[in-house]
Amino acid sequence: MSLPSIRPWTWLKITVGLTYVFMLAPILVTIVVSFNAGTRSVFPPEGWSLRWWYEAFSPEWQSAIYLTLGLSSTTAVLCTVVGLPLAFGLVRHRFPGRKLLILLVLGPLLLPTLATGIGLLQVFHWTGIFETVGFGSLLVGHVVISLPFAVRTISVSLLGLPANVEAAAASLGANRIQIFWQIILPLIRNGLVAGALFAFIHSFTDVNLSLFLSGPAAAPITVKILGFLEFGFAPTLAALSAISLIIPLLVVLAVQRTTRLGDFVYAPKQP
Amino acid sequence: MFGVHWILIAGPALFLLLFFVFPNALLLSASLLKSENQVLTSKLTLDNFGFVLSKAHYQRAILRTFVVGASVGLLVAIISLPISYFLIRTTSRFKGVLITLSLAPLLASVVVRTYGWYVILDRFGFVNDVLLNFSLIEERIAFIPSTGGIILGLTHALLPYGILTNLAALSSINPNLETASMSLGENRCRTFFRVVLPLSMPGLVASFLLAFSISISAYATPAILGGYASRTIATHIYTFIMQVLDWSLGATFGAILIGFTVFILVLMFRFGGRRLEL
Amino acid sequence: MLQSSLSVTGATGTGADAPALVLKGVGKSYGPHWAVRDLDIAVEQGEFVTLLGPSGCGKTTTLSIIAGFVEPDAGTILLRGKPLVGLPPFKRGIGVVFQDYALFPHMSVAQNVGYGLRARRIPRPEIDARVEQMLELVRLGGLGSRSPQALSGGQRQRVALARALVINPEFLLLDEPLSNLDLKLREEMRLEVVRLQRQLSVPTIFVTHDQSEALAMSNRIVVMNDGRVEQIGSPKDIYETPANRFVAQFIGSMNLISATVVEAVAAGATGLVQFADGSRVSIPFRTGSQAGRQVSVAVRPERCAVVRQTPKSDGTAALAATVTHLVYLGSKVEIHLELAAGGVAVVESVGGTVDDFEAGQRVAFLASPQDCTALPD
Predict the structure, then answer these.
(1) Same domain? C235 vs C265
(2) Is the confidence at residue C6, as pLDDT, over 50?
(3) Which of C240, C267, C284 is the last residue of a domain?
(4) What is the distance in angstroms between the Cα of A119 and the nearest Cα belonging to chain B?
(5) Would the CB atoms of B22 and A113 count as touching at under 8 Å?
(6) N or C end of chain B, less CB within 10 A?
(7) pLDDT surpasses 70 at C333
(8) Which pLDDT value is given to residue A258?
(9) DSSP H helices in B104-146
(10) For chain B, how many structural domains are there in total?
(11) Predicted pLDDT at C233
């Protein structure tokens, strides 16, 4: 690298460093504040204490955490189960209305979640299913808004299947069903896991949909924190925020041990 | 002809029709129905739109929403480009860690990410403390609730989306183009502006529109950092639906959001290099 | 089962049986474009037949049709007399080796090789035994537990061969299996593939665009172009007596010099042709021709010579020429000529050196008439 080219790159590095500070500082501040000894959320903390973390694990908040975990994992599983045939149909077949179906599948990602939330609330209200708000209606809504992530990720892995392996299996005597179970499924395992993970994260961090479909007995942790913020920024809420950050982080770290996720983070390659 | 694909897609497609298309259609139709005593009637009307568009405080909320959307879109596009370019071109051995770190905020809910801004910007928060300490101000300043607070919080929240979009766009630029430009006598800076920037326009446009479309319907950040003083369409919707129980006005604002989002999507597919593919 | 098929038999079928594979009038169209059309090919028992042609000539489509990955729009295919069209690939019992090997990345080498046997629900101990035996045969003994990713290109190639052969296929299809290997390994694997094919005596169609591969390995070569068969014959036939200009130019290099037929000549006979400069020579015709027709006189560069002075006419075709340039290739020298009769020609000189001639020099281009063929234009 020639000498005059060093300076612009250094400037870029400084800019990038500041961007990282901007992105990460508020999150770190939240975590630090949760260990504050005082009763207010202030930074830097007035002392150190775990009292807010004890409070964050009170039975009421615990049940909210379990509910969210149950909701998001069920969403992840359902999105994978529903997303696999969809991705298969869209990747492997060309049929009239295919573009329309892609629009339908990506729709929840493109249109405001808020509007889908209100619409679903109306549907559940008028039809009376799922007692309007609660776990059932939350689950349906979460599957709708998380499905695009699963379908896209599974599609990427289907498109990335090595050429000819299915033809090779067929020439060796495997029928369609055997090819699916013995060749395709093992080879798209990463995509299925990543798709489920992205659906889980999207569901776990959602606010805009859960806002309308939560009931008094069934509210995900994000909505519950938001509700309590109206009454002040208690350090307990900082601890809960930290918990709701740590859970998806742990899940990602656990999955990353067995599955390469990087391949699925970038926008998918066009076929 | 009924092929295998119908068996594969029929169920999921029906599910989406029932729980995605139908609710949104219902919302749009509710915006065109008259509501009496909090109950929707079957009378078609444009009164709902007339009402929300004529009241000054709703007009302000709509204007604020779009000012916020445009500002956030612009800031996200501008801030995410340098870091994306750095992440694509760096040869650091921490490249993977740096990319992960730039996207990690996506793991946190907007609520979590906005909480920190409250602590930093509050009247009794970190920034005020620092400014007072150094005697730069004499009285504490209320940075929030404010429209600026909303813009700051949303820019922060949507930056990872901008980075993802720009990473994807920049990764398709052949690094040899830059080497070629420099071999032809342009320095690194001018190479960036003459070669990289024009080629990264689709990514910039896409990240602007993406951030725009997400921020106009964001609820949590305006609710926390904007409060009642700086209301947006989204916070009004919440009040209508959950507190005033006025379905038709809530649906009307919802319809306005959907309308503008669709408009942005059309722009995105035309100018943002997006194609309707999975 | 494997033991019996390991017995060494003759390279070509004895003709006692029906041909191993017969393609009759096979065609496949994509819209208005025919990928292949009117294919008539028969492969004898134990025979090694190569489909040779430029990319896009339809050779891979032909292979996919035989394997059952593509359904033909016309024609019939018989494998040992039983019709194949309509039968799904997994019921055909045809072994296929793909250009990219298509090894299952999530399975070990042994699992890859044993895949077809498991699909046939053969008992586990027998699978293990046959896999081990086959790996020995392709000289990969002891590597069964490796992952395909941990193997070199040549080793993957052997795994792919073993996987296709272990099922005792009635027929073997090889789709450019050597094209991903580097030159040295490719030449080594040529011998290896031929050795296995001869040893197992499995009738084989091999697809390639590499003429030297085709010449070195095949019993017979099918030259294809634009979805049609141009010529079928032994490597020697194809090289020595190409049927037309395409075959002549596709395999090896060929000098083609325009001439006019002086008097009508029957197919296989010898006839007199006249070049543009008026010189005449009598050469063999592959197909008959009317008098006055334009033909190309074809002669291989290594069968021609260049001399400084035009010799006395003794029946040898001798044309006045000018040297345009020389190309030094180590073991031989190419002398490029411009002919007085029009056109250009190349002469390969094995013994000569570059110093013998120089650009611009006037010379004579010589070829013995029996080395020439008249090809219709």
Answers:
(1) no
(2) no
(3) C240
(4) 4
(5) no
(6) N
(7) yes
(8) 81
(9) 110-121, 126-133
(10) 1
(11) 94
The answer to the question of residue C245 being in a domain is no
How would you classify residue A236: left for phi > 0, otherwise alpha for psi between -120 and 50, otherwise beta?
alpha
- Written as one letter, the residue type at A14 is I
| The CATH fold of domain A59-265 | MetI-like fold (1.10.3720)
Write the CB contacts of C138 (distance below 8 Å, at least 6 apart in sequence). C158, C159, C161, C162, C165, C192, C196
**Measured between CA atoms, how close is C118 to chain A, in angstroms?**
9
Closest Cβ–Cβ partner in A170, A186, A187 for C89: A170
Q: Given an 8 Å threshold on Cβ–Cβ distance, is A93 in contact with B171?
A: no
Q: Could you tell me which residues come within 8 angstroms of residue C183 by beta carbon, excluding any fewer than 6 positions away?
A: none
Q: Which CATH number covers residue B145? A: 1.10.3720.10
Could you give the angle at which helices B110-121 and A6-33 cross, rounded to 10 degrees? 90
Q: What is the pLDDT of residue A269?
A: 35
Which residue in A30, A42, A208 is closest to B115 by CB distance?
Answer: A30
Q: Which residue has the higher pLDDT, A72 or B142?
A: A72
What b/e sequence results for B171-188 when a residue is b if at least 16 CB atoms lie within 10 Å of its CB, and e otherwise?
eebeeeebeebbeeebeb
* Degrees to nearest 5, angle at CA A248 with A247 and A250: 65
Condensed to tens digits (0 to 9), the pLDDT of residues A132-157 reads 778 999 999 999 999 999 999 999 89
Contacts of A254 in chain B (CB under 8 A): none
Q: Is the model's pLDDT at A90 over the cut of 70? A: yes
CATH number at residue C93: 3.40.50.300
User: Which run of H or of E encompasses B153?
Assistant: helix B147-170
Is residue B44 included in any domain, yes or no?
A: no
Residue A264: what pLDDT? 74
Q: Do B164 and A267 touch (CB under 8 A)?
A: yes
∠A179-A182-A185 over CA atoms, to 5°?
90
pTM of the model: 0.84
